[in-house]
């Protein structure tokens, strides 16, 4: 909370002290904009706590549009690519979809989690390859499963502070290939060998070689601070909230069924086809597999054996994919003749105990972001929550519906309330569509924006949990039609 | 195996244990008497699983008392006779405790070994019935528990039975003691502890059902000797009597070496196990219950049980909660003691400033703390992440910055009154009014240190023992001016540091140092009389001291020993005389300061395990040689000369009011000075061995050496009146 206040005051401070921009001029150009949007929104939202979330003296920031590559199970069609190839595909798709002139883009930010060491600033490598100007700077952010959320909110900060007008934010993850390293001992020996000058020195270093030096080091799948894998933590979380295996399987089945329906009805319009070099063009997500509860019940627990409840069928799977969104200052978008899809409004990052509350980020972030925006649960028309595990989603739902939890762990007087399931992840979620860690955030925002347009709502709430016990939530407001 | 059921504290994990079931079939039906009110146990039936919940009233732990035992048998009989019930789950509703072993009060109230044998046999019957249960019984264990149906016959199990040490749940699983681990849960819609027990129960019920339906088979359904992780080969080897004899011998040797034959129980346990294996389990059970009965009546047993009670008492803050909890601690001096104090504070989450005057000295202290924590990482009791988080509680610095926020300052600078005065004045110039100033000193009177204080009510002594992270004792010293809240605060910090605490009155040497000094004086005299350091060490360790007397001088530091001996010698005069301080003086002048300088009576080298005698000591010993007095110089006399001086001084401390209770005297002697635990401390020793015998010894030595052995009045009173006991 404090951090956000600080961030806002920092932003207003920067705004006030911008040497080149008269703050009067800014205010002047913004007032008519915000009032016009208020008028337009009024019809659609008579029952809302607020007609719009536009704030005086702060630029309105819009998502013009967003795309993603099809999300594929790791080890399938993308398995020979490098992460920047996927990211480039998302960027090219975005350019194609929006026809934005490359030289208008002020900045590019990508989120990623497992970094390919050759392209540690994957945003820059992808941008260069996608034909962006070499004068457009790019950086990469990482914040576990909310990395591309971080990319988007960084863009919001840059635009709100007047530093940029047009920013591309995105995310990428390629789990088909991960950096497997030599062991520390082997690396040390190789580095020492590099420095050795004489043959004798080299020989003495080599003589210290032991066979166990060759055992490789894999990127950690477990939480660094607790050494617990996320699935294990999710299983304990589900148990703590007394969520049964059946409930979890049912929720997963719901996700897959809804995703299948959305795919069949062509609702997943953010997906752009990707011609993979040397392979067929990939046109759709390949992890959507509605099964039957009986089939799912046959699976053995994946983490806590033999009595755990989290299985492969009720967890999100390892996924390859990339996403990108075009974010602009509203006046810039309008000046360029765009019809934006949505406003990006208040957002919130939270963090809590990485051991026992690893995946409860949405529970903590939701009431805070609603409060900050001055909205209530009833104002939200569209919920898009990241589904890491069925058990995690159901635990969050239970926690949000518990006064006891709110009072004892969140320091709040009362629960925030249960999001109505009929508004919740209606086009599937990470469980079914897939979860490329770094790319999921943009998918959530685009799903919320597209659903708001399709379903006619005004406010969408995006929320996600992330490794490290962190979480994020953001309000997406439909752009008036 | 009741005698040996270890008190295991399963801290991190929760475990479920399946007891074996074998062929005996019981088909007698009795009506369940549901109206019977039970106080320790209640049970309900979930489907076809009986859930038996243990919860002794008004106690933090469940212990195997007679009431619990009889209620349990009642319930089990109902379970066995009910046709609806196909399996059972045994669980405690107390978070963190299943059954913490036998009830010591119950054992204590027994006056004969037959009574104990009787209790043991009843318990055996219960366990035997459980083992032979026709219906699967799953024990869901959360927290400390008796070792639960231990399979025996393998060295690992031997090890645990003998030392009674706690086993971490993951190790218990590896050892095959438990079948399944359930990890504790975090918050849900109710408190984590509550939900964890519920969850454990749920998991145990599915297991019980699975066992009854034969969907799950318990892995460990083998015989007495074989457990599932023994390979075919070893179990074959164990079937050969000769191999078994070899194993018994090996174990016995090891035990003898470790216990010096002072603790009867471990050897008896081996006997019992041997009987069980060689003559069948019935003979084993019989032998076990009888031996247990005998053991319970031994002096060692009484002494150890007394010590256990004392330790429990010294883990409480009888001064109440301090007005202001210490959140910011500051330690002055980053030497061995200062860094040790910092280590036991930061690893409990206490923010600690460690201050020294030079960067190298500070660096050594910080490294000591890091190493102490890192060693735990190597032993896998900490994760590297936890280590890092703990280490960040430590702030190393060379100035007094931040002391204005300190709630307590503990100085651990060199033992020099002027220096202590200086740091006290320096600290008082910056610390806030409420801040406690504690002095870690082994002999300087706190009252004298406090003379320069502006606020003597806030000054207190906190005497830690080296190495601080290993030694459990903390001796807190109060002056007449020390306020009650200051004492409460010091005790509170000490308890949070995990210490066992005695609170004593100020005076030269307080309690611990004062008891040790006359004994040390005797050590020097004995060395002067021609007994070599190695011989002396073996005499003291075979009496039950964990560290030999000569080694102890090396460990304490020869300079420290001399410093203390001189100071206390001045205060107490003749009574503390004996050996010549000249010996210590000469050692110091040659640089033989003990372990810290690499040489003392022995030579200490990094990485060398067996220490050798320092041959350069020969000339010093020779030059100070005194004739010995043959009638008081037998091995036994030498042992008693040391111990009686110690004991006499301890009792004098109680007589003079330095000690408030005999309990604190025993705890201080055992946990701080290594007084033989099997004797239970000086006061238990007098009670159990008879004051008269000790006075007789003292009189004999008094005749030879004079006043140093004159028994104090309180001891004489006890000798004159056999009904007088320190512990009633």
TrEMBL record, chain A:
Pathway assigned to this chain's UniProt record: Lipid metabolism; fatty acid beta-oxidation
Major localization class: endoplasmic reticulum
First-level EC class: transferase
Entry's Gene Ontology molecular function annotations: acetyl-CoA C-acyltransferase activity; acetyl-CoA C-myristoyltransferase activity
Coiled-coil segments: none
Sorted UniProt keywords: Acetylation, Acyltransferase, Endoplasmic reticulum, Fatty acid metabolism, Lipid metabolism, Membrane, Mitochondrion, Mitochondrion inner membrane, Mitochondrion outer membrane, Transferase, Transit peptide
Alphabetical GO biological process terms: fatty acid beta-oxidation
Highest taxon in the source lineage: Eukaryota
InterPro entries with a match to the protein in the record: Thiolase, Thiolase-like, Thiolase_acyl_enz_int_AS, Thiolase_AS, Thiolase_C, Thiolase_CS, Thiolase_N
UniProt subcellular location: Endoplasmic reticulum; Mitochondrion inner membrane; Mitochondrion outer membrane
EC number: 2.3.1.155, 2.3.1.16
Catalytic activity: octanoyl-CoA + acetyl-CoA = 3-oxodecanoyl-CoA + CoA; an acyl-CoA + acetyl-CoA = a 3-oxoacyl-CoA + CoA; decanoyl-CoA + acetyl-CoA = 3-oxododecanoyl-CoA + CoA; butanoyl-CoA + acetyl-CoA = 3-oxohexanoyl-CoA + CoA
Residues of the Thiolase N-terminal domain: 61-331
Ranges for domain Thiolase C-terminal: 338-477
GO CC term, one of those recorded: mitochondrial fatty acid beta-oxidation multienzyme complex
Protein's job: Mitochondrial trifunctional enzyme catalyzes the last three of the four reactions of the mitochondrial beta-oxidation pathway. The mitochondrial beta-oxidation pathway is the major energy-producing process in tissues and is performed through four consecutive reactions breaking down fatty acids into acetyl-CoA. Among the enzymes involved in this pathway, the trifunctional enzyme exhibits specificity for long-chain fatty acids.
Quaternary structure and interacting proteins, as annotated: Heterotetramer of 2 alpha/HADHA and 2 beta/HADHB subunits; forms the mitochondrial trifunctional enzyme. Also purified as higher order heterooligomers including a 4 alpha/HADHA and 4 beta/HADHB heterooligomer which physiological significance remains unclear. The mitochondrial trifunctional enzyme interacts with MTLN. Interacts with RSAD2/viperin.
Family as reported in the entry's similarity comment: Belongs to the thiolase-like superfamily. Thiolase family.
UniProt cross-references to NCBIfam families, sorted A to Z: AcCoA-C-Actrans
Protein known as: Trifunctional enzyme subunit beta, mitochondrial
Organism, as annotated: Bos taurus (Bovine)
UniProtKB/TrEMBL annotation, chain B:
Organism of derivation: Bos taurus
Record-linked SUPFAM superfamilies: 6-phosphogluconate dehydrogenase C-terminal domain-like, ClpP/crotonase, NAD(P)-binding Rossmann-fold domains
Database matches in Pfam families: 3HCDH, 3HCDH_N, ECH_1
Annotated site (Important for hydroxyacyl-coenzyme A dehydrogenase activity): 463
Name by which UniProt lists this protein: enoyl-CoA hydratase
PROSITE patterns in the cross-refs: 3HCDH
Record domain 3-hydroxyacyl-CoA dehydrogenase C-terminal: where: 509-604, 641-720
GO biological process, alphabetically ordered: fatty acid beta-oxidation
Major enzyme class: lyase
Entry keyword annotation includes Glycosyltransferase: no
Gene expressing this chain: HADHA
Record's keyword annotation contains NAD: yes
Residues of the site described as Important for long-chain enoyl-CoA hydratase activity: 151
Reaction catalyzed: (3S)-hydroxyhexadecanoyl-CoA = (2E)-hexadecenoyl-CoA + H2O; (3S)-hydroxydecanoyl-CoA + NAD(+) = 3-oxodecanoyl-CoA + NADH + H(+); (3S)-hydroxyhexadecanoyl-CoA + NAD(+) = 3-oxohexadecanoyl-CoA + NADH + H(+)
GO cellular component, as recorded: mitochondrial fatty acid beta-oxidation multienzyme complex
GO molecular-function term, one example from the UniProt record: NAD+ binding
Residues making up the signal peptide according to the UniProt record: none
Span of domain 3-hydroxyacyl-CoA dehydrogenase NAD binding: 329-506
InterPro entries found in the cross-reference section: 3-OHacyl-CoA_DH_CS, 3-OHacyl-CoA_DH_NAD-bd, 3HC_DH_C, 6-PGluconate_DH-like_C_sf, ClpP/crotonase-like_dom_sf, Enoyl-CoA_hydra/iso, Fa_ox_alpha_mit, FA_oxidation_alpha_subunit
Keywords, comma-separated and alphabetical: Fatty acid metabolism, Lipid metabolism, Lyase, Multifunctional enzyme, NAD, Oxidoreductase
EC number: 4.2.1.17
Domain of life: Eukaryota
